[in-house]
Amino acid sequence: MNRVYMLNQKIDRAYNAAGKAMQDVFSVFGRLGMKIIPGFSKDAGKLFKALDIPFMACYVFFKAGKGDFVIYSYPENHIKIKLLGKLKKVKGFKLVCFVNDLNSIRYGNFEDESVKAGIRDELYYVGCADIVMPPNNNSEKLLREYGVTGRMIPVGAWDYLLSDNQTAPYEKHGDGKWKLAFAGNLDKSAFLFELGKVKGDDLSFELWGSITKDINELPCNCVYHGAVAPEELPRSLAGCHFGLVWDGISVNTCDGGLGVYLRYNNSHKCGLYLASGIPVFVWKQSGLAHFVAEHGCGYAIESLDEIDGILNGMSDSEYEKLIENTEKTAQILRRGGLLESAYRKMF
C-alpha cells in the first residue's frame, strides 16, 4: 500500500483566515491517510531549530520508500526541498508539491526582469517535485511556461471545512439593498476606499477583517463589521446575497501586484463565501473564473460597475437557481471534496 507523508508546517491562527486554508489541507489529507512528518516550530529554541532539517531527513530516509509519496507545501524551506530531492533518488518515493503561494508573483510586475528571475527561482523549487498541485488551470499554464515538467493536478478552488451548524440559513433577497460580503485582510485591499465610485444605489458592501486604517474614510456604501474568527465568519455572513472576490487598487479592474495575482492564485475568501452558501462575483481574468462558470455559482466580471446591471436584470427565479447551484458547490467545499479529489489523483 502506498504511504503518504507531508512536511509539517507551523500554522498561525489569524482573523484574516490565513491559517485556515492550510489547516484544512492537513485535515483532509490526514483523513485520507497522510502522516505528518514531525518538525520543530519556529518558536523553538536554537538547538531544536538546528536539529529540524537533520530530523526531517532521518525521518524521511527511514520511513518513506519506493512507491510512497512525500508532500511539501510551497513556500517551504529551500534547503529542505533540495534535500528531499536527493532523498527521493535514493529511496524511490514520489515528491509532491502543493502550491499555496508564490510570493514572487504576488507583488511583482511581470515585465520586470528581476521579477521574472524571482519567479524562475521560486519555480525551480516547485519543479523539484514529480507531481505538482497548482491552484488552478491558469497557474498550471504559468508553471509550464517557466519550465516545470512534473505531472499537474490543479485543485480548482479552496475548500472551506465547515459543519452544518456553522452556517446560517439562506435569506431570500427582498426589496432592500443587495449586500455584498468582503472578508479578509482589509489593509491590503486598497480598492475598498474607492467603492464609492461604483455604480448602484442599491449596493451595500459588508466588510469583515482586520484593518489599521481609519474606517471613517471608507465610502458610505460600506459597512464595517469588525474582525471575526474563521470558524465564526460563515454565520456572520448571514443576510449577504453575494461574496466579492477582488483585489488591487481599482474598482475598474484587478490591477497592481495583488490584483494580477488573482490570475494565478485561488483566493481563500471564494471558498468561504461558497461554503457559506453565498454566490460570488469574481474577476473575469482570475484563475477562479472557470470554476465559477463550471459550477454556475456566480458571475465573472471585468469591472465592479457591472454588478448593478447584472442584479437589476436578474429575476427571482434566476437568483434562486444561483443559490441552488451554490449550495451544491458548498456541499463539496464543506467536506473538502476538491482537496480529496486532488489527493486521490496522485496515485
Structure commentary:
- With 347 residues, this protein is α/β, with parallel strands linked by helices.
- It has two domains: 151 residues, 3-Layer(aba) Sandwich (Rossmann fold); 171 residues, Glycogen Phosphorylase B (Rossmann fold, 3-Layer(aba) Sandwich).
- Helices cover 37% and strands 15% of the residues.
- It contains 13 helices and twelve strands.
- A six-stranded parallel sheet has the order 2-1-3-4-5-6, with helices on both faces. The protein has a six-stranded parallel sheet with strand order 9-8-7-10-11-12.
- Helix 2 packs parallel to helix 3.
- The longest helix is centred in the C-terminal third of the chain and has 19 residues.
- The chain starts with a strand and ends with a helix.
- The model has no long low-confidence stretch (mean pLDDT 92).
